[in-house]
Amino acid sequence: xxxxxxxxxxxxxxxxxxxxxxxxxxxxxxxxxxxxxxxxxxxxxxxxxxxxxxxxxxxxxxxxxxxxxxxxxxxxxxxxxxxxxxxxxxxxxxxxxxxxxxxxxxxxxxxxxxxxxxxxxxxxxxxxxxxxxxxxxxxxxxxxxxxxxxxxxxxxxxxxxxxxxxxxxxxxxxxxxxxxxxxxxxxxxxxxxxxxxxxxxxxxxxxxxxxxxxxxxxxxxxxxxxxxxxxxxxxxxxxxxxxx
Length: 244
Known about the structure:
This protein is an alpha+beta fold. Helices cover 27% and strands 27% of the residues. GO terms for molecular function: metal ion binding; phosphatase activity. This is Histidinol phosphate phosphatase.
C-alpha cells in the first residue's frame, strides 16, 4: 500500500458509489494469499472479492483500505483492517496504518496492544458527560434521513464533532484522544476488527440500540471510551422524535 500512497491512482466507482483502486485490489489479493497459505481451512471474506469457504467456523475478514477516499486524496487517516471471526464473533482485530507506522491489536479478553512512533497508549479515557465529549464520524453522507436526525441529537449534546477519520478514529478512541464515534451503514469488514480493539482498550462498541454487533446487522455503530458515556449516547440516539 505504501508505494501507492500520494501517487496518481485511477479510482473506479463501484456499484455502491464508493471508490476502489488498484491498491485496494492488490492489497486484498496479497492478504488472501498469505492467509490462505497459513490457514487453509479458514474462510476469508474481503470487501473486494467476497467470501471463500462459507462453511468454515473461523473466518478472516479483510478491508484492505478502510478509507479509500482518504487514501486517494493523500490523507493518512485510512487503515488496513483484519479481523478473525470465530462462530461469527470477532475474536481478533487489527487496525494498521501503514504510512504512520501505527498498529492496534485487539484480542477478545486481552488488553489491546498499540505500537507507533507517534506515541500513545491503548487505554480509553474517562469522560463524565456528553457535554464534555469529543465526537467523531467519517462523513454526513453516511447517515440516512432518520439517522441524521438521531446523530444531530447526539452531536448537539457533545462538546465538539470531528468529521473524517474512518477506522483511524476508532484507533484514536482506543488511545484516549476522543470519546465517541457514531456511524451508519458500516459493513462487517468495516467494523469486525474494531470490536476487540475498542473492548481491549477499555471501551464499548455496539449498535445504536446498545446491542452487540453481529453478522447481518444494519451497520449502525457506536463506540465509546467510557462505558457510562456509552449509555448516555445510546439514550440520546434513541430519542429521535421531533427536531434535534
